[in-house]
Amino acid sequence: MKGAGTMKKTQEIIGLPVFAILDGKKIGQVKDLVINPEEGKVDFILVSNRNWYDGARVLGYKSVMGIGEHAVTTESENLLTTINETANANKLLERHIELKGNRVLTNKGNLIGVISEYIVDEDTGAIACLEFRTAEDESKIEIIDAKQVMTYGVDVIVIKHEESTEVSLQQKAVEAEKLVSPVAVTAVTSSEPTPLATPTASPSAGSSDGAAFFKQKQRQFLLGKKLIQDIKDAIGNVLIAQETVITEEILDLAERNNRFIELTQCAR
Q1: How far is it, in rounded angstroms, from Cα 72 to Cα 30?
Q2: Minimal CA–CA distance to 136: which of 111, 105, 108, 106?
Q3: pTM tops 0.70, yes or no
Q4: If you average pLDDT over every residue of the chain, what do you get?
Q5: Which class is domain 103-203?
Q6: 7-94: CATH number
């Protein structure tokens, strides 16, 4: 029994202590949630202990009894297994699919923002909806119903085109102004839905420029923020300490060590 349909933000789950009811003891802390991208749900909870990289363990979501305000509960510590002992968890982790910090792309080819949070059904672990910071205004947060999601990918989350989630022609003009020439912007804002004026670069180059633009906006958004927890490298050493103020050098360090997405999750 869990929460009778209660919805939980991941920030309400990650960091909670995990207690085994029969053992009557704390058996770890929620480090992260392991997503099954095909089914759109949480399959495992990643549980850390003091020796995080030596003793990484997973708890099947079906074995979670409850997710409360102060703790996650399970029946027994015996339900925890190491990552290597759980083939399904290992395969999912090896795919490196992260939701927070990932970009949102419509199936019409428009990048509309960056995921900042997602909400799961406590009973089933199913992802109910995702929150994203819009591309045109990072202070504005909008919500995507999980039913709109077509693909949870490594580089982008693809959603179905809907008028409520597509940027308007005016918003497209603002975005286009930063990416293409003023002539192209005029084409976007004209009364008829004519295509953008032909750019000098090839289509593939335009796509690359768009991706670079959103990555740069991510970096600008993170500058000056602080880390709320340590970020560790692949062998368990502290790479970037808690309370570190994020600078360009810190962002470069995180990217070189494949920790950029984790950094976006820990910045406040």
Answers
A1: 8
A2: 111
A3: no
A4: 81
A5: mainly beta
A6: 3.90.50.10
